[in-house]
Amino acid sequence: MMSNRAPPSRSPARILLAEDDSDLRTLFALTLQDAGFEVTQACDGKELLERLIDDATEEGDPAPFDIILSDINMPYFNPLDVIIGARRRLTTTPIVLMTSFADAQTREQARRLGVRAVLDKPLRLDELSPTLLRILDDWRCEPTSCTSGGAFAEL
Fold it and tell me: Which domains does the chain possess?
């Protein structure tokens, strides 16, 4: 049986969660916090970009988050546009997208941009944390960054 908890030997994984539906964002955040993640929230594409820039500027870290989990369809900026604009800052940060619907072209664009997985909504909450931990573990074991065409999963 797979545990939902982050391994105790590591500090909590920092996740940037971007979801425009406030109820879903709260539900996902609580689920991830219960599993041991440190969660920073964004309510739209604009705030997603601001969080990436603000955290990197404040901490001097080019990749302040261990993983990014974002809805694909959000107000202001599409996360795929944010990825394109912020890719220098996110050279190795695993990105996971969520969607209620995505065509093959969108999924292919996400894959080319280094997105690790596209999760189909509705998400199974009991699988969310283990899925993200597995993506993080796979990413930590890779000798190259996710921009080099790392594994892509449709879940």
Answer: 14-141+150-154 (3.40.50.2300)
